[in-house]
Amino acid sequence: MLDIPVWKRVLIWAVCAAGVAFSAPNLLYSTVEGHNDAVAAAEAGRSLTPEQEAARDAWPGWLPSSLVNLGLDLRGGAHLLAEVRVADVYAARIDALWPEVRDALRDRRAEVGPVRRMPSPDGVLRVAISEPAGLPAALAAVRALAQPVVTLTGIGAQDLEVTADQGEIVVQLSEAERTATDNRTMQQSLEIIRRRVDEVGTREPTIQRQGEDRILIQVPGIGSAAELKALIGTTAQLTFHPVVGRTENAGTDPGLRNSLFPSMDEPGVFYIVETTPVVTGEELVDAQPSFDQNNRPAVSFRFNPSGARKFGDYTANNIGSPFAIVLDDEVISAPVIQSHIPGGSGIITGRFTVEDSTQLAVLLRAGALPAEMTFLEERTIGPELGADSIEAGRIASLFAMGAVVVFMVASYGLFGVLAVAALGINVALMFGALSVIGATLTLPGIAGIVLTIGMAVDANVLVFERIREEMRTAKGPARAIELGYQKALSAIIDANITTFITAAILFMVGAGPVRGFAVTLGIGILTSVFTAVFVTRLLVVTWFERARPRTLNV
Amino acid sequence: MRHLRLVPDKTNINFFAAARVTFGASVVMMILSLVFIAMFGLNFGIDFRGGTTIRTESAAPVDIAGKRAALAALNLGDVSITEVFDPTFGPEQNVAMIRIQAQDGEEAVTPAIIASIEGVLKANDPGIAFTSVESVGPKVSGELIWSAVLSVVGAATAILIYIWLRFEWQFAVGAVAALVHDVLITVGIFALFQIRFDLAIIAALLTILGYSINDTVVVFDRLRENLIKFKAMPLMEVMNLSVNETLSRTLMTTGTTLIALIALLVLGGDVIRGFVFAITFGIVIGTYSSVYMAKNVVLWLGVKRDWSKSDDAGPKGTQFGDAGA
User: What is the pTM of this model?
Assistant: First the structure.
């Protein structure tokens, strides 16, 4: 009646053993973490310091080494939620389209006459033509510029929407192209933020896209959100422009297709430069912090072949004229071209500190962000606060565990001891599962564990109470145990599924620490049902087979 | 060996004896909660209304007036400073929370503002450390409120549907009535004592939903079983029998969970105290509502007992007709 097939027993014990094995590394957290860091460093091809080698050898490589990630609230670090202004990219795309449109219409000059770009809002190009009769031909010519958009659903969609409005041609990006552009912008932003954060080399940063146009960045161990913001908030758009003039009046009209940029070093000085850059930072292949001939911090850079050619040609043709190096709409410096610069390498000097030049080099190497970002949420948690929280959580968990053990043993005697053993296995399984899936443990997550310790006994209590009841109707111990498990099962399943529903909803809707809580609660429900239905039962049956009691003292 | 028994083996408490009083008390508490929420409002944390909180720690005693005077010079609008006390703090650990309202036109507080705040506080107390700085923009906080409401309503709806599928619609209504009761009264307590209400409290409310339904389902499960077993017994008696039979388990589980939670409440530190308090309170009220609230609603709605006569007008169900189950 109480038969549990051997394969089932083996399987149950195997799962328990796996839980213990995979949770064990967490007991020696710092040792295993040091080992993992050293292994990661070795895989990245860096040579190890003696301390790193010692850290690597402190934990044998063949043992499981996954750990529960500690959330920001436990480890300390910075959290940012950024919104990427995806619409910025439309304007740049449309602006870049104007020369193409102009050239296309120039080919039809006979029909459409001279063309003029009209003032228009960002992201819209309006072109006036002189011959109204040529409008259909002009529209056709501009439409010919459109490219098909490659998307999963928008088959046949074009990237441009060309319409006629009051005799003018209006060009803007189509809906399908906007979506595609947004996706590209987000992908690029994610990639560049990742590169920048990796350059600084902190452990396990989280960089995730959230929703349409948001990016969540969590970096453990960084000093403050302000520091993180300085690193990723800068667009780092490096451009080289021909200088038209220099002024001290901020209200100067720079003229058509020119821009007015302030100088970074000289307050009150503005440069008028041509808006279209000669070369941009996109063509950089390397940037390193260095020093100029006067031993002041500077950044040296190198262009790729096409950038080098453009840069070389321009410097050869414009010896003696000034040249503006612009970073995010600010002129870093505007040196006069002394000679032809072949080979495509150069140096940016300015009023930098060593930190500035190092950071600028990092930003230039990682590439420019395609669009600006607004920060919607930022949090900095100091490492001391996290350590305090871990300590408090640990003490509370131990206390909770101890009290539950006393309570259970006092109430159910031997059965209580078995339930407590199952509870220990349950906690091991929880930590093992959290480690293997690489879940993040947060402070509410610890609360979730403590709550699970309290609730994990519930399923056992349901069974034991049921066995007590069945004993009262005097069916003999074996039958009572069997009926107890059988009849308590529906209550256990229904009760835990409903709780699991809330955990699932918490996980879907919740953010950050709350999601951490949902994960521990959800995993806790699964493991506690498993331990109650399989492990405790196996323990009870094993005991019963050995002892063969005539009556049960539940 | 005699084991600890929270309740005798055989109890025969009539849980409906004081039905009017308990049900009335529940209704009164729910109305009071609504009144508190309307009158005092909730003390929303920055998650829900935007702004910045700075947690400071220093060896020197917290000088609230000095800090307030120092910050007043910065013109940051509404600033609140509270000292935090906790048994886990050491003697040299003086902690304060400073909350600053969302600044006009800013999505999140700029590094410049934070630097200036930290500057004046450092001038006020050179030994001060900033253990956490959090800032949420009004755009996100608006969305967080919405997602919080959505998650509570979504969870309640999902539970309603699940119970409906597993039991009968009357049980689902009873269970959800109990859930509304628990959540509403917990939120009422937060309004009454002006405890900070943030994202973590929403997680606590959802946990209460899960826990309270857990209790209710256990009672309902026994009720379902007894309804099949004792077909002739009046509904009220079957309910009393079911609650009495599961009483020992209800108190055992609530007991162990409360032990764990009280350990966390006392020793878990002040950062999650509000969160743990909400869960602890909710579990007590949830146990009460499973015993006194949920089944009263079911009794009031009535349960169709005899499925042998077909009745096309009534709801279709098979759960209690399956005598072999």
Answer: 0.76
